[in-house]
Design goal:
Elements: H1 7-25, H2 28-37, E1 42-43, H3 44-51, H4 55-67, E2 71-76, E3 79-84, H5 87-101
Antiparallel strand pairs: 1-3, 2-3
Helix pairs in contact: 2-5
């Protein structure tokens, strides 16, 4: 297989971007949040209950996930609902959910 002349340069740039993207996911608390969201949209209270993460930490993690375009938020009166919004994260979390989020042996 022949690669274009700029293949290495292009792949290096993409690798940096992907590494940064994965670093945003590579946090135990954010993974707990995303495992919960892999089951569907959840309000903040349900996320706190499902994960055991304190409200202040939850707010910080959700803000980071929102800023990175990983989750989206919907407001219904005073309640905020979160869902996975990034298509790649949806695919990643479906795989991780099947292997790690459900109860059972690792």
């Amino acid at each position: 297989m022949q690669f274009p002349a700029d293949f290495t340069e292009t792949m290096a740039a993409k690798a940096e971007t992907v590494a940064g993207f994965l670093k945003g996911l590579a946090n135990p608390q954010r993974l707990l949040i995303l495992c919960s969201l892999a089951e569907g949209e959840r309000h903040v209270g349900a996320l706190i209950e499902a994960t055991g993460i304190a409200q202040t930490s939850m707010s910080q993690h959700l803000a980071r996930l929102r800023d990175e375009g990983i989750v989206a938020v919907r407001r219904d009166h005073r309640t905020l609902y979160y869902r996975i919004d990034h298509p790649a994260v949806g695919e990643i979390m479906r795989t991780l959910y099947g292997h790690f989020c459900r109860e059972g042996p690792l």
